[in-house]
Structure prediction request, 139 residues.
Amino acid sequence: MAAKAPKLKSAARKAAATTKSTLAKVPGPSSNPATNLLIMDVAMRGASMIFGRAMEKALLRARYSDGKAADIVKGRSMVQSMAATGAARMATRSVPGFLVVTGGLLAKAIFDRTLSRREAVRRGEETFAEQAANAPDET
Prediction:
């Protein structure tokens, strides 16, 4: 069994080198690799944002009309968006960050459970009504 380990390492190194040399030959839209990385980063973030908003709308459509679901998503304030982005970054950067964010979300869920069901639903409906009212008009 010990004899196979060096062969596996050797094969893995060879595969990695082959992949690296192949990727180096793939041209990007620019001859500058930093520009190519920037283009890829913007494209990935844009696709992620579009997918995220589509998922939010799909979840909201289970309870609201298509128009209201779209308005709720569009009406999110800059502070709400920045808080969600900051929490997501904090959670993905480190284990302590993940634990802090998870703990905060768990605390919020427990707080919501301490309220009566009607009160929790009423507060959520009010928040969504405000967000829908803040949505920019499509004129």
